[in-house]
# Entry
Amino acid sequence: MPHENDPEDLAPNFHGSYKESFEEEDEDFPTDHLSFGTWRTSGAGDLRSDRMPEIHGNFSQSEESGGNRSNEGIVMAEETSSGTRSNYLLARSIFIVLIASALILGGALIGIYVWGQTDEGGIEEEVFSNPQPENFPVPDDTLLANNEQQQTESPELEEGILAPDEIVEPVTAVAAAVSPSVVRIDTYAGTGSGIILDSSGRVVTNAHVVDGAQTVEIRLSDGTRAEGIVLGSDPNVDIAIVKIEGDVVFEEAVFALSDTVQVGQLAVAIGSPFGLEQSVTAGIVSAINRAVRHANVIDGSPTVVEMIQTDAPINPGNSGGALADRQGRVVGMNTSIRTDGIVSGNLGVGFAIPSDTILLVADRIVNGESLDVGYLGVSGQNPTLGRAGALIIDVLEGSPAWDGGIMPGDLVVSVDGSPILGMSELAAKIRISSPGTQVEIGVIRNGEEAFFKVILGTLGSN
# Structure
């Protein structure tokens, strides 16, 4: 499109209109008196300012010689040029209006589209109120499907937290199961605890709790008080049996075998420390098969008993109480604590008689069997080097060990399949066995393992 101020385009049209207007008005008009030819030959469309005085001067001469006709011709040329310019401006205006209308319409359409998209985005934000960042990893469809399936199969996982009435603490559950079977025992000498052994009302406790008494006072878990009759005791193992008298309601305990006890498992102690009945403390099993030396409560003679070590707090008054596992089964009877000679309270080292020993000795007492201690007839020490065991130094001639084939220099490593780590363990195994019992003793002799059958004698008979 030509520019409206382009001199190359406006001058010819202007010149043509000017000439045509004179020819149409009067063919006899004396055009040779004008300087028009000079203006035309000076350069078509040359509108420089140095030519304008000549044009105005020629126009004055034409007016004097030709009158008004020349002026009218010039006016017509100017009007025609103005009309063309007006048409061009009108067309250009219309074109601009059309473009503007198209832009407005297009903008309106784009606005409607964007509004629609924004509306959809708003709905998505309502559904996903916590939008993920752009670089958040997109979960795999398979994982999402598996997760949905798991939630469908396990609806309880949706809440994630159990209701308060559904939460069960392990120690709480053990206490609820075992406490009804634990009693408080009061004597003239002090207070201890006991475990209800069977449905007949027998209660097992420590021999040092009854301390030679014939009757004791028993307080059940619900506060009921009853009299207890001491049926007997084994001071060497520190176990006694008491029978509850009277028509009372009680609940017997459930015992677990000693071989189910593992180091590190939960251990819950229940008893009456310092007379505070039904006290519950918890810890773990620190060790098993621990040979613990103590004195016979009757004559003060030294003896050794194999026990469970625990860090569950045990204090005076806990003696005779229950040591239970996670399943609410009694695995031992709390008996003693290790102190430093200065502090008499608990230091985290307590001992409990294993359940197997409890049941074995209780059965002897109830059935009136002999409480004599088994006898092997050897002396020895712990080895200074090499494999753990009981190193035999001397064998008494004519003793059960002599008759069974045990010789000095033998390293005893097992008794009836139970490992022996030292002389204390060997003594504890033999003394818990009744006289006349046959035991299998495993030894290392000349680097080879050998087994010998030995029938135990009675300690103190020789």
In short: The chain has a mean pLDDT of 77. Residues 158 and 433 are 57 Å apart (CA to CA). The two ends are 140 Å apart (CA to CA). The first helix runs from residue 7 to 25.
